[in-house]
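Researcher: Let's try something more involved. This one mixes different molecule types, so please make sure each is placed in the same coordinate frame as the others.
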Amino acid sequence: MIMENRELQDKPLNEKESMELITRMIQNTQHRLERGAGIPMLIWGYATVFTTILVWATKTYLGNYRFGYLWYLIPIVGISGMLLRKKRPKAVRTYIDKVVTYIWIVLGGTGFLLSVTSFWSFMWTLPILFIIIIIMGMGSTLTGLVIESKPSVIGGIIGMLLSVIQVLVQSYDVVMFSFALAFVVMYIIPGHILNYRAKKACLKN
Amino acid sequence: MFKELNPLLHSELRLGVMSILVSVESADFTYIRKETGATAGNLSVQLDKLSQAGYITIEKGFNGKMPRTTCRITKPGIEAFKEYVEALHTYITKK
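Model: All components are placed in one shared frame. Result:
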């Protein structure tokens, strides 16, 4: 029988009550969603999608390859958004938070490094949009698996499948729109779902 | 053979606190208070007892102008918790 939530006292327990208490306390720390949990995904998702559309539009209608520099808006807007969002220190820091942080440090850093290398290298060209979707899709899928968020797992996998279009279809328009669509599926939709669920969970508590 | 249960952990509130801290990197005072339902005064007393035993560390700081107390379990605390759970098993399996 699971003990109901009530004020814990300084009193001894029997063995069964002790085990039930331990189980309940540990479970409570694992199934916890904080309000605004999806905000980082939304910041990076929208930054990427709007920048992609902007780069596509300026190149298509103005025809100047220098508009490629607009890709730098993604890290500028993304990092600014992350710094500006109202963030209280976390009341509890779990090991899952640590794992997710490390996933994004490694994958985000790799993506940024490859983007810069691709942009500035004159000796070799990378199918950089394809590679970025794969890396960010891995990040979304891994994060979804760790935090048990099905939308992030499914979004990440669909995003990575969309990257195949980049390899098969040699059309600038299709490549750009599939890139934007991948980020809608990997970040924007799961981010909104996560925020909705976190808001619901916080209201329940 | 029944193993002796650590009296410091064989208390509802202190066991609740240790169960929370063993599964997280850190937790602040308000979170622990919310999860255990304890009063601030009672929780402070129990946290001090666990800290004096070396089972947890308590860091006092500020979040802007608001005071903030963060608790972490220590290695001896993890060991003590592990031994407590093993001792519990001897009672539960023998019955």
